[in-house]
Every structure is written in structure tokens, then in C-alpha cells.
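User: Predict the structure for this protein chain, please.
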Amino acid sequence: MFKYQNGLIVNEKGKVLDVHGGLDHENRQVIVWNKHNGVNQQWDIVYVDQQKPEPTKGQMNSQWGFIVERPFYIISEMKSNRHLTQLNGQHQSIIKTPNGNNSQKFYFDQKTRTIKLVRSTGYSLEAKSNNQIGYGSSTARPEMQFKFKEGYLYNVKTNKVFDVSGRKDAEATTVIMHNRNEGPHQRWRIVYVDQFKEQTKGLIEEFGLFANRPFYLRSQLPNHRMAECNNNHDVRQRRYRSNETAQQWIFDPV
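Assistant: Here is the predicted structure, written as C-alpha cells:
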């Protein structure tokens, strides 16, 4: 015989229902154990006629803070607004200037409650034991589950947050897990890919160049020759030639 008391399912001997080992894994055994009030012994009673269906593709999962299966960027709130990037073959995450590549795109998977990689959909972000943010085969494990709340990305297992290492707002800086201590190096925006607008014209201040505006690279040596692409495999300096496209360059911000 069991009773429901203060979030616990208690039998006549005072023992309670317990998720074995406190491991929040799919198909984990539920046992009866001595009461210790751990979260793995706490339960909600939800009546069948009150249970809401799980969100499906395109719907917001308010508990986790993501729209299901809608690709997004994870953008740092530091001044340069670089994007979280997970490069192929590298088991760490970094911040890089936005480039639109799949290495900067992620989506929330409702089944596993993980953040999956668009470039390789069988893999999800993972909080490693050394506080690095890597990736692994997608499974519903706490170290692979993150919640987005009030600008912070929390790991379910450790409650640590995404953190730009050393608070360095620089290209290719590593992103790690760290205890929350406030500051823009720990705050992020989730921007869905279909809502993100790249700057495609005007001065890109970070790089000191105008986007998509042809220019010459003129040497400051006395003859002021131009950098010219030579047969698509190297660059030479040559005298200026009007309308020579091999001497014209364009900065692509994407």
C-alpha cells in the first residue's frame, strides 16, 4: 500500500519510490528505497485528463526554452556577438564570426531533449567532465541536456552555464561550462535561422572593410602596384590595369 505525501510515494514501511541511482535515463528502473528526499524520489501526480501533449515541430517547449526542430544560432551577448561554433572533428565549442555554415546551426530535439547539430543530426552538444562543451551520439542523458532561461544555457546535470573562457571576446575562443557568475560572457541569445539577418552591405567595423564593395589592394612601395590573382593559384603584385578583374577583391561578410 502506498500513499502520496509531500511529493513522495510512501509505503507502509516508510520506504519510497526511487529512480535507481538517481540517473535520469530513459528506461531506468524505479525501485523502493529508504527515504532521503533526493529529487530522484520526488514525484508529481498528473491526472490523465490534465496531461498536456508534448510540443511538436514548430511549437515552443517552454520548459526547455526552445522551439522544437527549428534551427537556430547561439549568439554571444559579448560586444562582437560571435556565434557558438562546433567544427567537424573538434570536441570543443568555440565562438566565431557568423558565417552561415551548418557548424553554427543547432536545433532542439523533443525526443531526447538535447541540442542537436545541424551538420550532423545524430550528434548533440554535451557537457564533458573537463567542463568542455563537446558533442556525442544523441541520447537522453543529463550531460547532454540544456535549458535556456533568461539568457543563460544551463546543463541539467551540473547546473553550470555556457561561458566564454577567460571573458575573451576574440575569434575562436573556447566556450566552457562554468558556475554562473553573471556578465555578458555567460549570456546568449537564441536566434532562429529564418529570422537572422546578416549584414551584407556597408562598413563591417570589426574587419575594417565594406561588404561586397569591390576594391584594390595597393602596395605602399614606391610604384604602388596592385595585388593580382595569378591563374587562381597565387597572388602577384603588378601595375594597375583599368578594369582588370584579377586585381579587384570583395569582402564577403558571410
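Residues 60-195 form a domain with the Trefoil (Acidic Fibroblast Growth Factor, subunit A) fold (CATH 2.80.10.50).
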